[in-house]
Write a structure and sequence with these properties.
The complex is a heterodimer of chains A (306) and B (305). By secondary structure, chain A is mainly alpha-helical. Chain A has one domain: MetI-like (MetI-like fold). Chain A has 15 helices and 2 strands. With 305 residues, chain B is an all-alpha fold. Chain B folds into 2 domains: 127 residues, no CATH class; 159 residues, MetI-like fold, CATH 1.10.3720. In chain B, 73% of the residues lie in helices and 0% in strands. Chain B contains 13 helices and no strands. In chain B, helix 4 crosses helix 7. The chains are: A mainly alpha (306), B mainly alpha (305). At the A-B interface, helix 1, helix 5, helix 6, helix 7 and helix 8 of A face helix 1, helix 2, helix 4, helix 5 and helix 6 of B.
């Protein structure tokens, strides 16, 4: 009965709203064609890919490639490289919140708008330009950073040749690029703060520092938690584009992360199945991570992504 | 009297607070601005002065030589042209798919809306990844085909959600109801009512797509081998990072005169600064005018349903 009524309802909706369904049909089609079919192609992680047989005809090998990856001698080093970059990035999390609070408390004037304009700007620079600026500034001979360091009495160094500096460089340049941009969302959240609450706090004798701590921070908490959740969900995945550009032969021991390894194995070495298995392994870790974090957050902080 | 004293104390705390705020924001702004400023100055100054650290604050030995030199780099020009083409057509393609999807999903009473929403949302969390996508695109004939830079998934879930949020909150239902009474079809009310009112969000999403297209190099790295199809960013990578360009070879090893070598090396560096400037010109020119649209997009996107 219920299936019948479902079908009837479906027919009714179709005849009434067919134009809307038509409008959404083509977007759905491209998503199917360019996203869901490759998703289905993930099965080559469980097959031994042979180009003459294609994805659907190659032989099944079960978990072979996953086991191969976990037993890879550099497996833990790579996982740790990935985590290191993520954890360092997490340290920069509070800065945009602080900037938003500062900007919020400034009078709306030329100075404030100039500060916003300038701090948002690096967000629009491409990763290639950002990385090449980084490499040029840190260059041993006459890189700007070294030049200034020498003027101040320091010693010029080849910063990118030091593997352990890879994560700090990655994170600091990331902070430079996104500090202002990431503050916008908190600034938006601040604008919903009711003036009555602030007045009440004033009447109760709260000074600016009290307001900062007892009014602003609690008000921003839900936004902070959501952003933190999004951030933590990416803990075991570091984007390819920037790491790939900052990599060099000297820092590979610290700069090989899962995404660059997937590229290396797949596109350079042509081991399609193995590369896919590694990528899938990473995605699974991420999904487990984000679902569990979301569950914990919903229970503990009553805030969640979905 | 007591009240007065209280007010003075509060004033002092506010004044300290205000001072701290302005000091911190000033320092932050200067630190963020400096690398950009330095790159501009370095690209227009005498390369040797840059190397000596004479341009830390201001231009020295103003020159356009690096700019004149980089025009000889062929992949830079073709990259520029390709990127423009990919950006214009790619953005148009994305917009034609994203805006209708966002509009349809903003209809609160549409049966199946939730499932369709999830259909798009899932793409944010799971995907085929590098190789399965590559193999499929190869089958479609998109590898080494510049069309790959234009067509594709079409709908970025995030952008779609932002646009949908706008449709849901900024266009009153009564307008659609009135149109329905007047006998307008659903497609007609999309084109006649929703689209004209959605100009602000169309601007925002267009900019999002356009900047993403202009700035990314990943797709081209994976799918496009022939240099003639390369977008600007991939050409930049070649010139600036892997150093495999015509002008990097200027540090010719047959000439062993150390001073000459050093000059050449400085010149190459100055040219790199010039390349960075040329590549960022579209951003530098448009950014001040469009900044508010980008900000608006984040604001709309941050409001939860």
């Amino acid at each position: 009965m219920s299936t019948l009524s479902k079908r009837v309802r479906f027919k009714k909706a179709m005849s009434r709203h067919w134009q809307l369904y038509l409008l959404v049909f083509f977007p759905m089609l491209t998503v199917f064609l360019f996203h869901y079919i490759p998703l289905w192609g993930l099965q080559i992680a469980f097959r031994k890919y042979q180009s003459n047989k294609g994805i659907w005809g190659s032989q099944w090998v079960g978990l072979k490639y996953f086991i191969q990856f976990v037993n890879y001698p550099n497996f833990f080093q790579m996982m740790w490289n990935t985590l290191r970059v993520s954890l360092y990035s997490l340290l920069t999390f509070p800065f945009p919140v602080i900037l938003a609070i500062l900007l919020n408390d400034m009078k709306d004037n030329f100075f404030k708008r100039a500060a916003q304009m300038i701090t948002y700007a690096p967000h629009f620079i491409s990763t290639v330009v950002l990385c090449s600026m980084t490499l040029m500034f840190l260059n041993r001979e006459s890189g700007a950073f070294n030049t200034i360091l020498t003027l101040l009495g320091g010693k010029a160094q080849d910063w990118m040749a030091r593997p352990y500096l890879f994560a700090p460089v990655y994170v600091i340049t990331g902070l430079w690029q996104n500090l202002g941009w990431n503050s916008i969302i908190y600034l938006a959240a601040m604008s919903s703060l009711s003036p009555e609450l602030l007045d009440a706090a004033h009447v109760d004798g709260a000074n600016r520092f009290h307001i900062l701590w007892y009014v602003y921070i609690p008000h921003l908490m839900p936004t902070i938690i959501v952003m933190l959740l999004l951030r933590m969900g990416q803990l075991v995945s570091v984007g390819f584009e920037k790491v790939f550009l900052l990599q060099n032969t000297l820092n590979l021991d610290y700069s090989t992360v899962i995404s660059t390894y997937v590229y290396q194995i797949g596109m350079i070495k042509g081991q399609y199945s193995y590369s896919t298995a590694i990528g899938l392994f990473e995605s699974l870790l991420n999904i487990i991570l984000i679902v569990s974090l979301n569950t914990i957050s919903r229970k503990v902080a009553e805030t969640s992504l979905w | 009297m007591a009240k007065n004293k209280n007010r003075i104390r509060m004033d002092r705390s506010s004044r300290i607070y205000t001072f701290i705020i302005y000091a911190l924001v000033t320092v932050t702004t200067l630190v963020v601005a400096y690398p950009l400023y330095f790159a501009i100055v370095a690209s227009f100054s005498d390369p040797n002065a840059v190397a000596m650290g004479d341009t830390v604050f201001w231009f020295k030995g103003f020159t356009l030589e690096p700019y004149q030199a980089i025009i000889k780099e062929p992949i830079l020009l073709s990259g520029y042209r390709n990127s423009l083409i990919y950006m214009v057509f790619g953005t148009a393609y994305n917009m034609m798919l994203t805006i209708p999807a966002a509009y349809v999903l903003s209809k609160k009473n549409l049966p199946g809306r939730k499932s369709i929403m999830w259909y798009f949302l899932i793409t944010m969390y799971v995907g085929g990844g590098l190789i399965p996508t590559y193999l499929w695109y190869k089958q479609l004939g998109l590898v080494n085909n510049p069309l790959v830079m234009i067509v594709g998934q079409g709908v970025s879930a995030y952008n779609m959600i932002v646009a949908r949020q706008f449709f849901m909150t900024s266009i009153p239902d009564s307008l659609y109801e009135a149109a329905e009474i007047d006998g307008a079809s659903e497609i007609k009310s999309f084109f006649r009512i929703a689209l004209p009112l959605a100009k602000p969000i169309i601007a925002v999403i267009t900019l999002y797509y356009a900047f993403a297209k202009w700035n990314s190099y990943y797709a081209a790295l994976v799918y496009l081998r022939p240099q003639k199809y390369w977008p600007l960013q991939l050409a930049l990578r070649q010139i600036l990072i892997t150093n495999e360009s015509a002008f990097a070879d200027m540090s010719d090893i047959s000439n062993t005169d150390a001073d000459f070598m050093l000059r050449k090396m400085y010149m190459v560096r100055a040219m790199k600064y010039a390349v960075i400037m040329v590549a960022s010109v579209p951003m530098l020119v448009f950014y001040p005018f469009v900044q508010k649209y980008f900000t608006k997009g984040v604001m709309i996107g941050s409001v939860k349903e």
